Automatic annotation (TrEMBL):
SUPFAM superfamilies: Arginase/deacetylase. Keywords: Histidine metabolism, Hydrolase, Manganese, Metal-binding. This is Formimidoylglutamase. Pathway: Amino-acid degradation; L-histidine degradation into L-glutamate; L-glutamate from N-formimidoyl-L-glutamate (hydrolase route): step 1/1. Catalyzes the conversion of N-formimidoyl-L-glutamate to L-glutamate and formamide. Mn(2+) 1 binds at residues 129, 155, 159, 242. Belongs to the arginase family. Transmembrane segments: none annotated. Binds 2 manganese ions per subunit. InterPro entries: HutG, Ureohydrolase, Ureohydrolase_dom_sf. It catalyses: N-formimidoyl-L-glutamate + H2O = formamide + L-glutamate. Its cofactor is Mn(2+). The keyword Transport does not apply.
Length: 315
């Protein structure tokens, strides 16, 4: 198996209301499957990239299965109405082979950079949350050493573990250690999703965060202000959704479920608010695990959140 595989066109199938009228089209009629090197400047608004890896979850002692999420999310996204502007290309999946996570993250980064260089917005379907490291790596290569990147993460967890081996629990510590100009805002932190030591690590590294229970206070006004203040300090922003930020009753299909997680509509509000930022480069959704899902509930929700975020992207 190669590390890069073009998407099986059979994943993009669904109901056909009208074969020719674009106003009746669903994603499966609008998305064009191609190789990365077939992308040409400005023809597409979005470029879907899958990251078929759960090696980071394995290393972090979690429940594996997220490597199957990119194709499962595609199947559900395919059936949704294409109620957005601009065209979408699907440039396939980057796979993690032989547990070589760092190689796969480098390759994901190469894809993200190449898509951005074509003036196309990457929409990355993870993968365990180790997806974010490759996502950041590609965005940073595009931005260049003189430009700063702020990362907005919607997550129950900080993912700032001090483990010697990179995993799905270490990315933000890795990034903040490697790039002193990077910033980290985490929305939806669970009090009982992180040890006291991890809260101390977050403070020590200058991570800004809002607890899950404080997100909806004041009808989001404080949250939006925090997002605004954070975003304007960076040349570019990237956004990542760790699906375990959503309450377990709505998102059971994750490695580490959150019984007291955010409502899906709260996450929708956060994603669409950040997507309206002019300097948001890219977005990933991570930690969907189809193998422990219940009646496809989490995969379906993931597809809706991806569609909502794409629709809200600043144009
Ligand atoms: N990606 C991060 N995962 C969490 C898992 C927590 C748990 O297993 O309960 C973490 O490392 O903190
Ligand atoms: Mn998490
Ligand atoms: Mn995470």
């Amino acid at each position: 198996m190669d590390i890069y595989i073009q998407t099986d066109k059979g994943l993009w199938t669904g109901r056909i209301d009208d074969a020719t009228d674009p106003a009746s089209h669903r994603f499966h009629q609008a998305v064009q499957v191609m190789d990365l090197d077939e992308l040409t400047a400005s023809r597409h608004a979005f470029g879907i990239i899958g990251f078929a890896s759960d090696e980071g979850v394995r290393r972090n002692k979690g429940r594996q299965g997220a490597a199957q999420a990119p194709d499962e999310i595609r199947k559900f996204l395919a059936k949704l109405p294409y109620n957005l502007d601009g065209r979408t290309a699907d440039v396939g999946n980057v796979h993690c082979k032989e547990n070589k996570l760092e190689n796969a993250q480098t390759e994901l980064g190469r894809h993200v950079t190449a898509v951005l260089q074509q003036n196309i917005t990457p929409v990355i379907l993870g993968g365990g949350h180790e997806t974010l490291y490759g996502h950041y790596f590609g965005a940073k290569a595009y931005a260049g050493p003189d430009k700063t990147i702020g990362i907005i993460n919607i997550d129950a967890h900080f993912d700032m573990r001090d483990d010697p081996e990179p995993s799905s629990g270490t990315m933000f510590r890795q990034i903040l250690e490697e790039d002193e100009t990077a910033g980290y805002l985490c929305l939806g932190i669970q009090t009982f999703g992180n040890t006291k030591a991890l809260f101390e690590t977050a403070d020590a590294y200058g991570c800004e965060y809002i607890l899950e229970k404080d997100i909806t206070a004041n009808d989001f006004q404080d949250t939006f202000l925090t997002i605004d203040d954070f975003s304007k300090r960076y040349d570019y922003v990237i956004m990542t959704l760790c699906t375990d930020s959503i309450k377990a009753s709505a998102a059971p299909g994750v490695s580490a479920p959150s019984p007291l997680g955010l409502d899906p509509k709260t996450v929708q509000t956060l994603l669409t608010y950040v997507a309206g930022k002019k300097h948001l480069l890219s977005f990933d959704i991570s930690e969907v695990n189809p193998l422990v899902d219940e009646s496809d509930k989490t995969v379906r929700l993931a597809a809706y959140l991806v569609a909502e975020t794409m629709r809200a992207f600043y144009k």
